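Sorry to interrupt, but I need a hand with the structure work. Can you supply me with one protein entry, sequence and fold together? No commentary is needed, just the two lines. Leave the record below and I will have a look.
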Amino acid sequence: MSLIRTQWNERSPLPRRQNRRRRFLLASGIEQKEKKPVLLHGVTGSGKTEIYMQMIAEVLARGEQAIVLVPEIALTPLLAERFVSRFGDAVSVTHSRLSMGERWINGKGKDGEISVVIGARSALFLPFPKVGAIIMDEAHENSYVSDITPKYDTKDVAAALAKRYGALLLMGTATPDFISYYKAKQGEFLLLELKERTGGGVLPRMLVTDMRKELAEGNRSAFGRALQAEIRRNLEKGEQTMLFSEPQRVCNLCFLPQLWACDEMPECDLTYTYHAKEHALACHYCGRRAPLPKVCPSVARSIFVISAQGHRK
C-alpha cells in the first residue's frame, strides 16, 4: 500500500486525520479476499471521489483497467476533468452521443491503450479485458436501471462482470438505496462509511414541516409557516430562494381538512395522487385509476382540499 500512502499525502488536500480514515477504508476494500461489492456510504463532500482516484491508482499500478460509471451523461465531463488531471491520457470518456470516431478511440481499451473509462451505464459493455475495478458514482440513482430493451440493472451487471474478472465493485453514494444498504448490513456487501465532510464542513440544517398540523391550524397555503418566514427574511436581506417541487404531477395528495388521505386502496394500501388534467385519482404504485368522487368514501364529507403544489414537465 506504499503507492496509496505516498500519493495521498502529496496530492490530497484533505486533513491528515481524514486522510488516515480514507486510506484505511481504501485498504479495507482492496485487500479483502472475498472481493465482495463495496458500498461506500459517505455524506456529501466527504471525499468519495478522492477514494475513487486512489483506488484507480492502485489498479493501474497492477497493470489493470478501471471503469467509472456516472448516472447521467451531463455529469461525465465534470468527473472526467478531475480524472484527466490525475491520470492524463489514460482516461477516456464514453456515452451514447459520441461520434463513430470517438467510439473507435474507446475501442482501444481492448489493446490496453486506455486504462480508465468514464461514462454512463453502457460503459460496462466496452471491450476491457483487464478490469480491476468498477466504480459506480451516485449508485442510488434510478437511471442505472435500463427501462428500454435490453432491460437490466447496472448494479447486477457490474457485480457479474466484477466476479468474472476478479475485480472490485465500489458503489459510492450519500443516500444508498434500501436494497443495497440491506445487503451491506446482512454482509453481502462490504459497508464503508464516511460520516464527516472534508475540512470540517458542516451539513446544512434541515427542517421537516408537518403540513397536516399546519392545515389544522388554518394554514391553507402550499408552504409551511417556517418556509414563508425564511423567504420573507431572504427578501428583506436582498437574497434569493430556490424552491424545488416534485415533477409530473399537480399535487401529491388530496385530503379533507382533518384527514391525511381521502381514500386508501385495498390493493396496496397507499393513497391516491390527484391529476388535474384528467381530474382523476391515480396510484403511482399499482397503477389503479379512479374518478375524483364528490363525497369522500371514508367519511360523509363532500369538501375536498387539494394540497401540495407541483409541476408538469
